[in-house]
Amino acid sequence: MEKQGENSSRLVLVLYPFQGHINPMLQLGTIFHAKGYSITIIHPEFNSPDPSNHPLFTFISIPDKLLESNVSLSPADFMNLVSALNRNCEAPFKKCLTQILDHKHPHERISGVIYDGLMYFAQTVADALGLPGVCMRPTAAAMLLFSVIPQTEQESVFETQIPELQPLELKQMFKSMSTNPTEAMTEVRAAALNATKRSSGMISNTMEFLEHAALSMIREYSPAPVFTIGPFHKLAPSSSSSLLQEDAHCISWLDKQALKSVIYVSFGSMASLSKQDIVEIAWGLASSEQPFLWVIRPGLVHGSQGTELLPDGFQETVGERGFIVKWAPQQEVLAHEAVGGFWTHCGWNSTLESVSEGVPMLCSPCFGDQFLNMKYICYVWKIGLRLETELERGKIQGAIKTLMVNIQGEEIRNKAAEFKRKTQVCVTQGGSSWSSLDEFTKQILSV
Ligand code: UDX
């Protein structure tokens, strides 16, 4: 049965089918459902979310033909995958949206199509059907600078000496992105930029105080208004959208640990490590003498379950002090009072989830935007420490101690706690994210 909200306005949300994108989009759905909108989620068949976790939404899957397109799912082949999804999904999406419009209740209206920035075909379809298209960006807003500033101007714009942006090294990022771009890269960037320009607005999962300078620059260049309504998960409590089974046993284990004593270790849903990294992490955690909760997801080390790579004698050495899971209820973990540090790959969702709970971070970025997020954490906000790319047990042990116990880490810990308070202000009535959401519904959805 079709699920309807109170105000008979419907929003269509278009998912990019990876964990770090599914979570924020479904959280956004929850926010708008709480505002009275009916929510339809349209998603490719690949990595389908479980509708039973979101009984108030309507889910429709569209054929993605990914198998026939012969693309790999590795981060290295990311642009080919995005290009294939956009090529393959446009026609079925148009058909699906047309059917929704034809069969909708006479009193219902479709207020807009909100799509992940990587599913830019949705803007083309929204334009063709006369609906407002809104681009949702699940990364730091600073990444948008590469979409809204014309390519020819980026190098000189990024020369500017804005103190808050200086540590992000945007010029170096621009240079590495423009050296030997593949055909798919050029195509995806141009199409995404084009869609952004035609969109009625952009929603960024960030907060004004976190990215003030980047947001001012984006607003100078973007014809579409930018709404900062993050962290989404703090504006409306959302049910889990994990593709892997969450292991809740770790929460009872956390309940037994001392206040702020646990280091939580997770490298997100896509990053990969070497066998030697696992050994160094294991001994680094063991010698830190802190309790730890470590997520070793299947595939973290390519082609392996991961846990079989743990070194001999490790389990005996750490005993009850360590807890290993395949996948954790991460938001709940970070909000737990026993957690005092997060060793992360700096995915944007993980970053925001840690910021909003005041948990200081140890940073091991692996690819893409994670390096920019790390620079924000360590050098702009100063709520974390960077670990060198080459993982080594002695350095790991030292960094954990600094982050969580030693006097040298005190400023970082205090600053992280301050960020939690600032986040709470943003998401309560009158705060910047709360007001931006209000503004978005008035300006874009009520047209
Ligand atoms: C990817 C990119 O790596 C990232 O840089 C980009 O910003 C978004 O897409 P991912 O690797 O999935 O993201 O990391 P992240 O953005 O941190 O998202 C992971 C999500 O999975 C988070 O919402 C986190 O709470 C959740 N998670 C992770 C769990 O629920 N349990 C876990 O055990 C680990």
From TrEMBL:
Could you tell me the superkingdom of the organism this chain comes from? Eukaryota
| Key words of the record | Glycosyltransferase, Transferase
Cite the InterPro entries for this sequence. Answer: UDP_glucos_trans
The record's listing under CDD domains reads: GT1_Gtf-like
**Family annotation (Pfam families):** UDPGT
Query: What protein family does this chain belong to?
Result: Belongs to the UDP-glycosyltransferase family.
Q: What is this protein called?
A: UDP-glucose iridoid glucosyltransferase-like
Organism the protein comes from = Hibiscus sabdariffa
